[in-house]
Each structure stands twice: as C-alpha cells, then as structure tokens.
Amino acid sequence: MSSFSEFGSLVKNRHKPKDKPTDTKVALGFLAPWLIGAVCLSLIPMLYSLVISFTKYNMIKPPQFVGLMNYRHMLADPRFLNSLAVTLTYVIISVPLQLVAALALAVLLDRGMRGLSFYRSAFYLPSMLGGSVAVAVLWKMVFGSDGLFNAFLGLFGIDTSMSWIANPDTANWTLIALHIWQFGSPMVIFLAGLRQIPRELYEAASVDGAGTWRQFRSITLPMLSPIIFFNLVMSVINSFQTFTQAYVVSGGTGGPSDSTLFYTLYLYQQGFASLRMGYASALAWIMVVIVAVLTGINFALSKFWVHYDD
Amino acid sequence: MKRMWKKYMAALMAAVTLSVTAACGSSVGASDVPVVPSDGDVTIRLNWWGGDARIKATEEAVKGFEKEHPNIHVETEYSDWTGYWDKLAVQSAGGNAPDVMQMDELYLAFYGSMGSLLDLDKASKYLDLSGMDAATRAMGKVEGKQVAAPATTAQYGVIVNNDILDELGITLPDTSRWTWDDFERVAEQVTERSGGKYIGSIAPNNGYGLQLWARQHGDALFKGNAIAIKPENLASFLNLPARWAKNGIEGSAERWSENTAAALNDSDFGKGTQAMMITQATMITPYAQAAGTDNMSLVPMPQTEPGAKTMYFKPGMYWAISSGSQHPAEAAMLVDYLINDKNAGTILGTERGIPANNDIRTMLAGQATGTDRKALDFVDEIRSTVGKAPAVTPNGASELDKTIVRYQQDVVFGKRKPLDAAKAMIAELQESIDFNS
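^ Those are the sequences you sent over. The predicted structure of the assembly is below.
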C-alpha cells in the first residue's frame, strides 16, 4: 500500500515547478516493472472481480448482470456460514497459541544457550515447509488411523485406531496443530525484538529484586508489545487465508462433513468446481471486508496494550 | 492528491466496464469451421485425466494414429481428475479448449448445453458410432444433440476377495439372485468372525450407486432438470454408511470416512483387509494387483427385488470434440480411431472401462485372461437385468458425487437425521440445477 501512496505523490509532484521533471520520469521508469505488474496483474483483475461479483458468470457464457443477488445468496447459504465459522475457529484458536509458542521459544533461545543458531534454524524449518503440499500430505499420514500420532499415543498406553483426519470433530484441530507447528517465523521476529531490549533494564530490575517472571511481565512484554502486535496482525491476515493445508488434507472437499471447509476453500469450490464465478468473486470481496474489519479491531485494541518507546 | 486518485480510479473502472461489455458481445466460441480434412499438416490437441497406465497406453495409441495419418500431429495433455476440470473450465473460458477431450457423464450436460462441444452428427463421415448399443450411444446426447462419443461403459458389481472368505470359512449364497439382506449377512460375518481384522464392505457413495439404488426402489434420480427421487429413498441411501458402521460391516464411521478418501492402494480393499467392494467391474484388475491376489471374483449387485431390470451401462468415459476446434474433421478421425480401431482397442484395453464398441469388447474378451477376462464377461452375465438407461446428469449437478459423500458424512457422524439430510440435499442440488438453467 505504501508503494501506492509513493506513486500518488510522484504523480502529484510532477506539477511542482521546483522538481526537475527528469527525476520523476526516471523514478517512474525504475518503478515501471512493479507498476505494470501491480496494475495489470493485481489492480485490474481485482476491480474486474468486483464487477464480476455483481454478475452470474460461469466462465464460458458471458457474464450477466444480477445486481446484489450473489451477496444476498450468502445470507441464505448454510455452507458459507459454516465456512466462516470453521475459519474463525481456526484463526481464534491457532493464532494466539502459535504466538505464545513462538514467544516462549524465543525467550528460551535468547538466554544465550550454546548452539543457538542451530536451534534457531531447526525451529524455523517448519515455517518454510508448513505451507507446502508435501507437509500437508505428511500430516494426513501422521494423523491417519495407523499414523504416527496414534503410535505416539500407544506409548502412553492409549490404544486407539481413531483417524483424526477422518473425524469431523477433530479434523480442524489437526490443521490448527499444523499452524502452531509453524511458529518459526514469528519466533525469529521475536528473537530480533528481544535483542533490542536494553540489558540495563533487566540489570536494574534484578538489583531491585525482581524475579524472572516479574522481569518478563514488566520489561519483556511491554518492550516487545509492538513486535507482538505486528506478529498478531500478520498472523490473523495470513491464517484467515489458509488454503493449501485444508485443500490437501481434505482432498479438496473441505470434509469430512465440511469440518475443514475454510473460507478460501469454499470460495475456490464455488468458482472452479461449481463454476459460479460471480458468487466466488462476491465471497472474495466479503473476505476482504472481513479481514479489513479484523485488522481494524486489532488496531483499535492495540492502544490499550501496545507501548511505543518514543 | 485525492482528486488525482479519483480520476485514475474512474478511468480504471471505465476500462474494466468496457472489457466486460466487450466480453458480452463475443460468442461462446464455436468456430463454424466446416468439417472437412485439410490438405496440409495439421496439429490437434488431445486431453485426458488419469494415472500412469492410462498415459502410457493412450500415448501409444496416439502414435498408431499418427502412423496412419502422417499429416496429423497430436499433442497430448493430461492431469489428475480435479486439476483436469479446473483446467478445462479455464481453457474453455479462454477459447483455448483442446480439440479432443475426455469427458465425464457428470460434466457432459454442462459443456454440452454451453455449446462448447461439437455436434458429432456433423462429423459422421469421419466418426462411426454404430459399433455400440443404441442405449449407450444415446447417453452421449444433450438436448437432442450427439455431443460426445461414449468410449467405454461401466457396470457396477461386487468384487469379492475370496482369500478372506476362504480363510473365514464363509460361502456366498446364490449371487445371481441375492438381496441386500443376503449381502449384509455375509459382510457382517466377515467382521465378526475375523474379530475386526477384516471388514465386510463399505457403502457405495457416488452418483452411479445412487442411480442404481433409486432404480431398485422403483424410483429415478433425475427427471429432466428436476431431482425426482423420493426423499425416503434418498434417505435410506444416505443412511447406508451409518447403518453399516453400526452393524460392523465397515468397521467404524471413521474407517468408512477414511476409506472413501483413500487412494486405491491405501484403502482397505486395496490392502486386502476388506472382503467385498461395490464398484465398477473393471476395477477388479487394479484391486487384485494392489491386494496381491488373483483370487478375486466378480458377482452382480445385490437387489431389493432379485432379477429386476434395474441395471444400466453407464458410459464410463466419453470423447468429445471442442466446438471451437479449427480441425474438426481430423479430431473426429482421432476419436474414431480411439473407439473403433482394433489396434487401439488392444493397446487401450479395459483401463478406461469396458469398450463401448461391441466388436472391440468381444475381441478383447477372446484374448484376455485372469481378472481382465472376468470384467469383460461380466457385461454378458448381467445383461438380463439391464433396463432402460436414465437421462444424463443435468447441468448444475456436476458436484453430485462430492455432495453425496458430504451428506453421508453428516448422517454417519450424527450431524443430520437421514430424512433431513435427504431433503437438504435435494434442495441444494435443485438450487444448483436451477441456477445453471
């Protein structure tokens, strides 16, 4: 978005007599690769999808204008409401748990243990793999009826042949677990943030007799809150758009019994399987609105707990 | 700055609106190229979905075709089932559909009624459809036009793993006249006697299974563009997985759910831990290979009324020609070669199903051995119970198979009562059909 406003000011500055016109032209020239991509591959298709969302369009016959029908249809569509519930459950549970795991490990690693860089890479690895198809396939096997997870439970005497993927009550939880497992990238950002906190604060606190927990609560958390906020906002946006994992684990169906029918998966099904492109476009725009509202709420709440050190 | 932006946005919106209206003006993509062969060299594209065995066989058959028609070059494309339909939709939208495409019964009405497929009667000079039964041929028609050529037919039956029955000392009753009660009794015994090591069977979960179920109950799934099945008949079908989970036939609800999503090699029947499987006859060979046994046999479906004429030959796969093809005559020659040529018939075998062309089928039956032979002979074995073929799945019901599984899961996991599920499923499908028509 910031690039958009840069572009805006460039355009505006063009008329300022003080600026040398060649500068602007050169800048626009350098921006061109990005600009052409952003306009042709993002902006125009996005606006096109907004237009499509007011039509009935199956990709073969030309679009037919239907007004607000697609938006009205959502209210009466139980699968849409269910997909919203599934996605929100996933976001509300997995995001905080992932951030807690990331922060806890970052604090542990920050203690300056030996082999830090090894552990940092090792913990970061799942984040690079987690979104991939291969790991989703692996996950399917781990939580299958004769998978690794049941073998693990067997070590504790819990003998079960339950398939965690094939049961609608647990399927979404396996995906939540997969998300939490990818705590690596927020962890790396936390680690960087922890390094920024002045050591004197801890020294002063320990002189005053503050214990580890007290130091964590009164120094680490407030000093780190802008970073936590950043991670929270990014995680909410990203996890709301989760697609690959649900697609692979459920074989594209969102099953069993629609229990892993994430918003984006339903959108994809409507667009490319049922060929209701108009409805799928409307779903996409409502998702933009939902993500914007969630981000807005996050920003509004941030002033109660985020401390900027000016 | 704000005003500047407004100007740019207005310009963009105008451009977008223009491009939409421009799209409205263009036709659906029929090329109206006369169906006459070209003199020079021609390249056509052939598209299908399927696994490694199909890729190998089809490419070999295509080479045979190119040898007979040296001026025609065929480019092949293939993908898996899901990817295939995504791709075909996008290609059709872009006016870039392949000249010859493999087609399925679920999607035939959609593409047929959109005008995306060539009326094959226009190409009858190059494509002979007389080798198959009239009923089979008729299942390639949409709105009275022959928009696809059935390549193969599918016959549902019960594949039996005799290793398991022998081990448990179970003998089948007279399967030519067996009922669902007989079937369930055998299946229950398997689970019981093996102490859960083996399961009896799993409930059918697709459109073909539902069609047969409806016909066995004196009902029909579709009438034209309407869902005609009575809610109670649909309810009993949707309740089958739940019932068989309860009486142990399929182990448990989760095991059924897992089996429906599993690849052939990972399913219970493929692993040799399930006694009976209701599926297409030609699947006997891949299942026998996966389970590592030759001791499999093929018996007719159980019926509610033994001997009733409720079966039909469902076209397994079709070949269709894009209405936008620049070389419809050459495309028709390729389809003709794939379904009528003896060489191609030998190469393609029964991998796509039982060949629709009766001469090819008899020829293959003469050469075949083992499980392949059983599948080919099965067609004649059940002929006395074959009735009139139903209408093809209407446009808008392409998601039938997935919808059935979803509602069966709702019932098996106790989220809906069978009759509520049936009513909701009828409403959902009908809405989708109405939306498309």
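Residues 17-28 of chain B have pLDDT under 50 and may be disordered. The CA atoms of residues 397 and 433 of chain B lie 6 Å apart.

Shout if you want it in another format.
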